[in-house]
Amino acid sequence: MAEPAVSGHHGVIETVRITLAGHVQGVGFRPFVYRLAARLGIVGEVRNRLGEVDIVASGMPGVLRRFETELVTAAPPLSRPVITRIEHIETRRDAGFLIAPSSSDADARIFVPPDYFMCDDCRRELQDPADRRYRYPFINCTQCGPRYTLIDSLPYDRHNTSMKAFPLCADCEREYLDPADRRFHAEPVACPACGPQVTWEEPAAARHGDAAIAAAIDALRAGRVVAVKGIGGYHLMCDAGNTEAVAEMRRRKQRPDKPLAVMFPLAGSDGLDVVRRYASLSDAESELLAGPVRPIVLVNRRPDCALAYNIAPSLREIGAFLPYSPLHQLLLEGFGGPLVATSGNISGEPVLTGNEEATQRLGPVADAFLHHDRPIVRPADDPVYRRIGGRMRPLRLGRGCAPAELTLPWRQPEPLLAVGGHMKGALALSWDDRVVVSPHIGEMDSPRSLAVFEQVAADLQDLYGVTAAKIACDAHSGYTTHQWARRQDLPVETVWHHEAHASAVAAETDRPGQWLVFAWDGVGLGSDGTLWGGEALLGSAGDWRRVCSLRPFRPPGGERAGREPWRSAAALHWECGRQWADCPDEHGLAEFAWRNELNSPQTSAAGRLFDAAAAVICGQTHTSFEAQGPMQLEALAHSPRHPVYLSLMRGRNGVLISDWEPLLEIVTDRERSPRERSEIFHASLAQLIVQQACRVSHEHDIHQVGLCGGVFQNRLLAELAIEGLRRRGFDVYLPERLPSNDAALCYGQAAHLAARSAKAGN
Q: What pLDDT score was predicted for residue 11?
C-alpha cells in the first residue's frame, strides 16, 4: 500500500511510476527523460525494459503532470511514445535522477527499431576538420545509425549488438556514459580509434580508411563498377551519367532492362537541389525523399535529364534516393554527381551482407570492393515508394521502415507466423493485436532466399520474445513457403491468395461493414483450383466470396507465361478464333499445347491481360524482369481516352464475368498509335472496375471499395479507377503502410485468421 504523499520544501511530494511503450528504444529516449527531469526538478530513475521504458518520478503534483505531458509532446523526433500506465506508489526520497541499467524481466510490448539515416548533427561533424570524427564513415548518435541490422538480441544494449566486437575508447566511453551527451547509450557509437574501418580491395591493391574511400571515388570516376558495403548489405555502384559504365554493369549482372536506382548528392536547404536537376518532384515525393526513411522514390525524369538513358530503359520514371549513411555521404560528396546504387545481390535473392561471400558472388560483376568490418546481422534492402492516388505508397519495405509494426482490429488467439507467398518474400509475426512485418527478403526460389527467410523467421521470434504456435501460408502447395510450413512441427492453416490480399487492405484500413475488394495481380491459386488474378471479393476480413471476375483464358506454357508474355497474347487470339501475325510460335508447338489443353492452365489474371497487351502494343514478347511489359505499357500512356465498353454477364455460381474481347480489337489496331492503344486499354479496365462495383452495389448496397494486388501499382489504372469510383459515391482505399503486392500477403494471412477467429467467438 502506498504511503501518503509527504511534504517537501516547496509543497507536497508525490511519486509515480510511468510506463511507456511504442518507439522508445534506440531513439535516445532515456537521455531525453533524464534532461527533462533535470529541467523540471524531478528526481527518480528511468530504465529500459523489454520494449518499454519504466520511469519512477518524484515531485510536486503540478510538476509531475507537466512531466507526464512533455514525455509525449517533447519527445525525440524518431520516437513515438505512448504512456500505457501511470500509478501512484510509495513516496521515494531519491537525491537526483539517474538512468538505471536495462532490465529484461518484463513482459512488454517490444519495439525493434529500424535503421535510421544520418542526422544533421552527425553530418556537420563528419564535415568538420576540427572534429575527432571528421570523415569517419561510421559516425552516429542516438538519433541516427543502424539498429535492426546489427541487433543480436534485446534489450537494445551494445553487448547485444554486432558492435560488441569494438570496445569503446576512453573518449567514446565518456560520451556513452554521459546522460547529457547526445551519444549517451548510442549503441553503435564509435570513432576512428575504436570503431569499424573501411577497406578497399582490388586485385592490384588494398587500402584502408580515407585512402580506401578515395580509391573508390577514383574508380567510379574511371567508369568502373564498385561493390560498396552499406548498412543492410552491399550496393553495386557506378557513374549514373556514364552510359558505357551502366551498360557494363548490366551485362555483368545479367540485368539487361530492370530499372536501376540512383543515389544523388545532398545539396540545398532540403538536400534535393541535385535531384531536381534530373527529375520533377511533387511536394509529397520531396518530403519522403528527404525524410528519415530515405527510401528509393519513383519520380518523373525531366525532359533534359542528363542521366544515362539506360538507367531505366523505355520508362518515364527513375528511382531516386539520397545518401542515408555517412559512408554514402562521403562517396557522393567526393564523386560530385549521381551514382547508380543497385542492390548487391544475385537476381531475386536477398542483398549480400558478408565480406567473403560478397567478394565471391559479386566478383564477376564488381571491379573492386569497398568493404567494412562491422558485421551485418541480417540483410535489409532499400525500400521503394511511388505516388499513387495522391499519396506515397510502398512498393517494397526495407531498411528504415521495417520491421513494420501494425495493429490488428482483432486479437490473434495464439501466436502466429505468417509466411506469405512466393514472390516479394516477406513474413509476419502476429500475437495479441500486433503484427510485425519483416523487410523484403526476395523471390523464394533460391537456397539463399530460403536461408534468409529461415533466419528472419527465427530472429523475429527471438527479438520479440514470442514463439509461434501456428503457421499460416498460401494455399498453393507449389510455393516454397507452403512447403517449408508443412515441414515444421507446428499446425498449419492455409489462406487463399486473393482472400489474403483482401483481408490485408481491410485490416489496414479498419473500417466497419462490408467491403468490395478488387484483387488484381499476376496469378494466385483460387478456391476453384484455377489461377485467379482479376477478382472482386465481397465480404470482410476472414469471410470473402468471389462476386466478379474476368473472362478466363489459357496461356500455354504454365509459369513460362510470366517471362514470355507473347503466350498470353497468343492465347487471347486463339480464344477468339483469331491468329496473331506476330506470334513467335514459329513451329506451332504452343498452339498445339493450347488446343489440347497441355500445360495451359486457365487464369482470370488481370496481370496476364496486361502482359498480353504489352506484347502486342510494345512488342515486349519476352521479358527479363517481372511486370516489364506492363510498366512499359503504362509509360506509353499520358492521358485517359474514351473507354471501350466491356460486357458484364452472369457466369457459373452467380459470378459476374467481364469480357475482355473488345480490347483485342483495340490493342491490335495499327491504325492507332501505341500511345492511343495503351490509353484506351487502361481507361477501359478502369471503367470495368467501376461497372462491376456499381452492379455489386446495386445488389448488395456496398459503399467501400478496396484495391489491392500488384496490378494496382500501376498509377494510371489505379487513379482512373479511384476517380471513377469516387464520382459514383464510393469510398476507395488502397494500402498505405504495406505494399499492395504479394509482400502484404503475410499480413493479410494473419489478419484473415484473426478476423475469422473473432467472428467464430474464439
A: 65
DSSP at 603: B
In whole angstroms, what is the distance from residue 730 CA to residue 516 CA?
Answer: 10
User: What confidence score (pLDDT) does residue 101 get?
Assistant: 81
User: Which residue from 92, 97, 6 is spatially nearest to 43, judged by alpha carbons?
Assistant: 97
What pLDDT shows up at residue 109?
66
Tell the burial category of 515 from Cβ atoms under 10 Å away from its Cβ (0-12, 13-18, 19+): buried
**Could you tell me if 330 and 266 are in contact, meaning their C-beta atoms sit under 8 angstroms apart?**
no
Instruction: Supply 739's cell numbers.
Output: 505494399
Q: What is the 3-state secondary structure (H, E, C) of 140-172?
A: CECCEECCCCCECCCCCCHHHEHHHHCCCCHHH
- pLDDT at position 426: 97
Q: What backbone phi and psi angles, to 5 degrees, belong to 716?
A: -65, -50
Cell of 374: 562491422
pLDDT for residue 25:
77
Contact yes or no for 45/98 (Cβ under 8 A): yes
Q: Which residue has the cell 473500417?
A: 511
- Please tell me the total number of residues recorded for the chain in this structure: 762
Is pTM, for the whole model, over 0.85? yes
Per DSSP, the chain holds a count of helices (H) and strands (E) of 21, 29
Dihedrals phi, psi of 664, to nearest 5 degrees: -65, -35
Distance, CA of 495 to CA of 484 (rounded, Å):
15
Give me the pLDDT at residue 641, please.
86
Q: How many CA atoms lie within 13 A of 196 on its CB side?
A: 26
Residues with pLDDT less than 70, the chain: 1-11, 104-109, 762
Do residues 125 and 134 make contact, with C-beta atoms less than 8 angstroms apart?
yes
3-state helix, strand, coil in the chain (%, to 5): 35, 25, 40
Distance of alpha carbon 678 from alpha carbon 341, whole angstroms: 31
CA distance 110 to 503: 25
CA distance 244 to 480: 38
> Which amino acid, one-letter code, is at 79?
S
Neighbours of 292 (CB within 10 A): 16
* Beta carbons within 10 angstroms of residue 203's beta carbon: 7
pLDDT confidence of residue 92: 86
The answer to whether 142 and 164 have CB atoms below 8 angstroms apart is no
C-alpha cell at 750: 494473419
What is each CA distance from 80 to 216, 372, 400, 540, 758, in whole angstroms? 38, 32, 15, 30, 29
Q: What are phi and psi of 471, to 5 degrees?
A: -120, 140
Main-chain phi, psi angles of 332, to 5 degrees: -70, -40
Cis peptide before 403 (omega within 30 of 0): yes
pLDDT for residue 7: 44
The residues, any chain, with a CB within 8 Å of residue 231's CB and separated by 6 or more, are 115, 146, 149, 324, 325, 376, 380, 399
Query: Which residues touch 524 (CB under 8 Å, ≥6 apart)?
Result: 421, 474, 476, 496, 497, 498, 501, 531, 532, 533
The pLDDT, as a whole number, for residue 100 is 86
E-assigned strand segments in 655-718:
656-658, 704-708
**DSSP string covering 608-639, please?**
HHHHHHHHHHT---S-SSTTHHHHHHHHH--S
pLDDT for 4 equals 42
> Exposed, middle or buried: residue 183 (CB in 10 Å: 0-12, 13-18, 19+)?
buried
Q: What is the per-residue pLDDT for 68?
A: 95
Any bridge partners for residue 331, and if so which?
none
The dihedral built from the CA positions of residue 398, 399, 403 and 407, taken in this order, carries a sign that is: negative
Any idea which residue has 499520358 for its cell?
A: 638
Give the distance from CA 545 to its chain's centroid. Answer: 29
Q: Which neighbouring-strand residues pair with 473? A: 494
Using alpha carbons, list the distances in angstroms from residue 314 to 90, 276, 618, 679: 70, 21, 10, 16
Residues 6 or more apart whose CB falls under 8 angstroms from that of 276 comprise none
Cell for 460? 523475429
Cα torsion 10, 14, 15, 21: sign: negative
